[in-house]
Every structure is written in C-alpha cells, then in structure tokens.
Design goal:
546 residues; binds flavin-adenine dinucleotide; binds succinic acid; 14 helices; single chain; alpha/beta; Methane Monooxygenase Hydroxylase, Chain G, domain 1; 7-stranded mixed sheet
C-alpha cells in the first residue's frame, strides 16, 4: 500500500507534534507513530522546560550554565539561538493550552509569563524551570495532541513503526539503503503492527522525531519506545551521526524491582532534597561545591562511586523535611507513585540509583534541523544539534525540541514551496523470500544481552578493556541479527532489536574513539579532559556501498 503526503513525520513526541502543527499550514501531513500517539519520552517528562523569565535571570547566565554542563563541546551559535528563542516558545505553548504552574498556587493557571512559577535543577545558576507540577511532559503532550486531533490536514497513523528511510538510491530488498551521500529522502517503509503489513509512505519532506535510545541500557528512565530507531535509520540511510558516547545517566531513579526505574525528578533536589548514604550522611559535598545541585554527570558518578565503596544497592534521597503539604502540592505524581511502591516521601527518604536517561548525540543537523540527506530533517532527542555538547543541562531537552521544531518547520515549508525534485519510482517492500520465524528466542536473548552488556561495559564508568569486550560481543550479535533479518518475516520486535544493536554499536565506537574523559564520557584509562586533542565532536558516517 502506498500513502502520499507533502510531509511525513515519524514520531509523536513534542518534536513531531509541534512540527506537524506548523507545517500543516502549508501542506498535507502523515504522522506515523509506533504505539499510541501519547507514548513518548515527552509524556514522562517531569521537571520542566528551562527558560529565562525571572527579571534577575539573563540569557547570558542560561547560556553560561549550558556551556559549563556541555564541557567545551556546545556550539555557541546554537546555544544562543535556543536560549533566546525559549520564552517565545513557552508563550506559544501557553497559547496552545498548556497549563503551567503559577507562583502563588499549585493550580495550573499561569496565563502569561508574569505568573509562571520557576523551579530549579542541577547545573542551573538561577530558578528558570517552567513546569506543570511534576508532570510537565504530559501537560505538553496532551495539549499538542488535542490540537493535532482538530487539524484535518494531519492524519495520524498509530501502531505504525517506521523501518527504514527511502532515499533515491534505495535498493528495495528489505529496504537495504545504498546511498550516494548526496541523496534525497522520499519517505519511509513503515510496518503496520495491526495489519502486519509494510506500507510505503511517499513524501516530499520527511522528519525524524523518533526520540532517544534509553532502552539500549538495562536500567533506564525511558519508556519502551526509546530504542534509537531514528538514529539507526538515519545512519543506515547515510546521514552523519555524532557524539553518541555522551549518554546521560539520571542520578535518581526509584530503586524497586517493580518500579521500572521510575524517575525521581531533579526538581526534588532543586526544592531542597538531599542525597544521603545508608548512615544518613550527605556525601555530595565531597564531589562538587554545588553539592546536590551539581551537573548530572557529576552526581551520577558520585553515586556510582559511593555504591562501589559501600557495596550497597542504592543511596537515599530525602526531602521529608519539607513537610507533607509542600510535597503533596509540588510533587503529587512522585508522591503517589512512590506510595504505590511502599515509600512515603513525606516521612522517609527514597532509595534511588542512576539509570540511562538521555542521548546527547544523534543525527547531526544544521541550525534548522536539516540532516545531510536532502529533504530529511531531524528534531528532538534523535538529533545532535550542538546544544548539549558532552552533557545536557537539565530541562534543556524539551526546550531544544520546541525551538528546533519551530526553525525546521519554517525551513521545510520553504523547501515545499520550491520543491521541483522528481523522486524516482519507489518499489514496494520486498518480502518474497522470507518465511515466518520459529526462533523468537534469538530476538529476546539478544535484546537482553545487548542491554546487559551496555550497562556493564559501556555505562557510567568505562575502560578500554570493557569497551573492547563490548565491541567484540556486539559484532557477533549484529551478524546474527542481520542473518536472521534477511531470512525471516519481520516483526516489530525484530525491527527494534536491529535498531538497538546498531545504536549500541555506534555508542561503543564513539566511546572507543574518545581517549579522554569529558562530560558524560568517563574512561578510567584517561581520567582527564584533554582539550588539545579532543575538544571536538565524534563524527561517524556509514561507509558508502557503491
Ligand atoms: P519522544 O518524546 O521520545 O517521542 C518519540 C516518538 O517517536 C514517540 O512517539 C515514539 O513512539 C516514536 N517512534 C520512535 N521510533 C519510531 C519508529 N520507528 N516508527 C514510528 N514512531 C517511532 N527533558 C526536559 O527538558 N525536561 C524534563 O523535565 C524531562 N524529564 C524527563 C523525564 C523522563 C522520565 C524522561 C524519560 C525524559 C525526560 N526528559 C526531560 C527528556 C525529554 O522528555 C525528551 O528528550 C524529549 O521529550 C524528547 O522528545 P522527542 O519528541 O524528541 O521524542
Ligand atoms: C527531571 O525532572 O529530573 C528530568 C529533567 C530532564 O531530564 O531534563
């Protein structure tokens, strides 16, 4: 089946939805998303969106904090653009119906910037986190989806999982792409999970807004959708990917066998929560003058060190001193969730551990979200724009997605106006030579193995030896998956497994390349930052197969 539109958008988090609403003014939009539309990292975002609203705050201070966190690798032009555009994008969200918290009450009634309550998070020198209680992402996702549903130029395809991008030179057997590196994108092959068929989506402009890759790790704050599909698809199609060694581990996820690493927002520490050990002693003062509000890489490594020293399974996060009324009003969702797992955070500290949270690297883009394949844009966590450098500053991710979907949509609308490209005839997906698999065990085994090996060998603290071990293992797994991929009918699990393995391989290769420690990449063999050799991005591109 062939579906044609001016714009194809892959992903329904903040990046995809915001872009969709804007480009729909200029053309028809097909938006594919692999599960329910709301299922995204965006929907789980807690802390909020960083932006300068306080009259004592300044763009310069927000920029400085972003640079400090990024440890020398942020692009100054990008940082300036994103920080300065922040307030306009927040106002736009308010106009679209997002209800942020006010200074005076816990109710969601901030009607303009004057009344916004501004929280604090790690690495920020000022209060600048705009939030909707502790469920900011859900407030944004719901408001945007409501607008999307009202727009008759946008067709949403739920349970549609993009497999591979289609470029001019795509050879069709299983979407094997062999690009010239001066290629044009003409859409994507998409697996309809309900109908179990592959559809061909043809478009003039394509946006990858597929989010992050937390599921590459055994322990992650991310929901199941975060399998790095866009990064893997982009790489296979021939885009440049960058900085994939910089995986952010959030310091505080709830430690409980059934909690699936439920995130305990950094805003808890922003409101005075303190990390303590089993004896009740605080420890962050040993690691950074900013103590509990140091940048995330520092806090996550400090916890890792404390756990290795003590042999304990978790450290504790205590905010009980703030009292029941404050905690229930400021963190209603965290309070409720923790209680479900048997912890009353108004009375006792919560057991917490770090977990993989955010991918700072991704498909490299310019300042308007263009990748290096013509008519292919990438926005949100799947992109590497130059904003985050070696470590993203807290709450700069939703901000980046908002600013870039705005910039990219304007550029994409221009592309559409001037579009004269004749896309060659696109062949349908080829499944002739494949049969149903009787070896599902290969998929589940490799899935578990990748996540475990990435956690153990490519985690918060790395070494050359561990990275080499990971590299050897992932090469075998990739080979196995590829053989299986060509022989059997595809399933959603197999598509995601192939992407997970590709992204794991890219992370390992980037990490092996960087012979220093910087931001989120810490290698015990090279514990210092080396500006003279390594103050640069790590760039990877798939070799051209002619
Ligand atoms: P997502 O919101 O993840 O959306 C990706 C979409 O793509 C999903 O709809 C997914 O189903 C779809 N998709 C993926 N692959 C495919 C495919 N192959 N085919 C079709 N569809 C596909 N950031 C902040 O700035 N502030 C915060 O307070 C904050 N809190 C967070 C809390 C948690 C628990 C988590 C996990 C993240 C948090 N982040 C926060 C990070 C932030 O939420 C994400 O980086 C951001 O929402 C990413 O938006 P996105 O649109 O790029 O991707
Ligand atoms: C949090 O609320 O701690 C997450 C914020 C972020 O990831 O930016």
């Amino acid at each position: 089946m062939k579906i044609e539109s001016d714009f194809l958008i892959i992903g329904s988090g903040v990046a995809g939805l915001m872009f969709a609403l804007k480009v729909a003014e200029a053309g028809t939009v097909a938006l594919v998303t692999k599960k329910r539309a709301a299922e995204s990292n965006t929907n789980y975002a807690q802390g909020g969106i960083a932006s300068v609203f306080d009259h004592l705050d300044s763009y310069e201070a927000h920029m400085e904090d972003t640079f400090n966190s990024g440890s020398g690798l942020c692009d100054p032009n990008v940082v300036e653009m994103v920080v300065k555009d922040g307030p306009a994008r927040i106002r736009e969200l308010i106009r679209l119906g997002v209800q942020f918290n006010t200074k005076s009450s816990p109710e969601h009634i901030a009607l303009n910037e004057e009344t916004l309550d501004l929280g604090r998070e790690g690495g920020h020198s000022w209060n600048r986190i705009v939030h909707a209680q502790d469920m900011t992402g859900e407030a944004v996702e719901c408001a945007l989806l409501e607008q999307i549903q009202k727009n008759d130029r946008i067709t949403v395809y739920e349970n549609h999982l993009a497999i591979d991008l289609i470029t001019c030179s795509t050879r069709v057997k299983r979407g094997l792409v062999t690009t010239t590196h001066e290629d044009h994108c003409c859409g994507a092959y998409v697996f309809d999970r309900s109908g179990r068929i592959v559809k061909t989506f043809c478009s003039k402009i394509t946006l990858l807004a597929t989010g992050g890759a937390g599921k590459v790790y055994l322990y992650t704050s991310n929901p199941d959708i975060a399998t790095g599909d866009g990064i893997a698809m982009g790489y296979r199609a021939g885009t440049t990917v960058a900085n994939l060694e910089f995986v952010q581990f959030h310091p505080t996820c709830l430690y409980h066998p059934d909690a699936k690493n439920f995130l305990i927002s950094e805003a808890v520490r922003g409101e005075g929560g303190r990390l303590i050990d089993a004896q009740g002693k605080s420890f962050m003062e040993k690691y950074d003058p900013l103590k509990d509000l140091a940048c995330r890489d520092v806090v996550a490594r400090a916890i890792d060190t404390e756990l290795k020293k003590s042999g304990k399974e978790f450290v504790l996060l205590d905010i009980s001193h703030k009292g029941e009324t404050f905690i229930k009003n400021r963190f209603p969702n965290l309070y409720r969730k923790a209680l479900q797992f048997g912890f009353d955070m108004t009375k006792e500290p919560l057991p917490v551990v770090p977990a993989a949270h955010y991918m700072c690297g991704g498909v490299a883009t310019d300042m308007e979200g263009r990748s290096d394949i013509r008519y292919l844009y990438v926005v949100g966590e799947a992109a590497c724009t130059g904003l985050h450098g070696a470590n993203r500053l807290a709450s700069n991710s939703l901000l980046e997605a908002l600013v870039y979907s705005h910039k990219a949509s304007a550029a994409a609308i221009e592309d559409l106006k001037n579009y004269q490209f004749k896309c060659p005839e696109i062949s349908p997906w080829d499944e002739m030579s494949t049969t149903d698999s009787d070896e599902q065990i290969m998929v589940s085994h490799n899935w578990d193995e990748i996540r475990r090996l990435m956690w153990n060998y490519v985690g918060i603290v790395r070494s050359d030896k561990r990275l080499e071990r990971a590299k050897r293992r992932i090469e075998i797994i990739l080979k196995e998956i590829n053989e299986y991929y060509w022989d059997f009918k595809i399933t959603a699990d197999l598509i995601e497994l192939r992407n997970l393995a590709t992204v794991a391989d890219l992370i390992i290769r980037c990490a092996m390349h960087r012979k220093e420690s910087r931001g989120l990449h810490y290698n015990i063999g090279y514990p210092e930052k080396n500006d003279s050799l390594w103050k640069k991005d790590t760039i990877l591109r798939r070799p051209f197969i002619g």
